[in-house]
Inverse folding.
């Protein structure tokens, strides 16, 4: 069997790399579901505020409809080799009710302020409850780097 050259990163490095990507990446895949309409997945711009992911979508979009009905979501950064998956519950705010600091940070990052648009928008905030991160097969073991909202310093022992 040929080696891929991938070196398994320690948990602290994996966490640091994940946090760096959350600050620098622009797009995130958002997966939602609705009891009547089933699963839905879209890419959205996002902002990481150091604790939560902030996104914005049209107030009448399928994503907005799903989040209002079922707040559990999964998020994924758009790289199939350097995988980062987040899971949590979405909290939503109409554009007129969003905390000003979050809306202003979003507008500053993207040069677009949904509050100034004609239609109504929904801001979505997700505080991750779990985060998985891995680069290739050598990192599958230990890929959970956050559990129950707490960053893990060490991997659980065992297989």
């Amino acid at each position: 069997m040929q080696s891929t050259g991938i070196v398994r990163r320690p948990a602290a490095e994996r966490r640091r790399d994940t946090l760096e990507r959350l600050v620098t990446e622009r797009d995130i895949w958002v997966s939602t579901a609705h009891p009547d309409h089933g699963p839905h997945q879209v890419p959205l711009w996002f902002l990481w505020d150091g604790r939560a992911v902030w996104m914005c979508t049209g107030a009448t979009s399928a994503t907005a409809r799903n989040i209002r009905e079922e707040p559990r979501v999964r998020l994924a950064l758009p790289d199939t080799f350097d995988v980062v998956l987040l899971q949590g519950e979405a909290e939503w705010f109409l554009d007129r009710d969003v905390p000003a600091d979050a809306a202003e940070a979003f507008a500053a990052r993207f040069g677009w302020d949904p509050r100034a648009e004609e239609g109504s928008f929904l801001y979505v905030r997700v505080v991750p409850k779990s985060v998985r991160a891995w680069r290739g097969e050598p990192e599958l073991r230990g890929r959970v780097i956050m559990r129950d909202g707490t960053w893990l310093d060490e991997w659980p022992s065992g297989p």
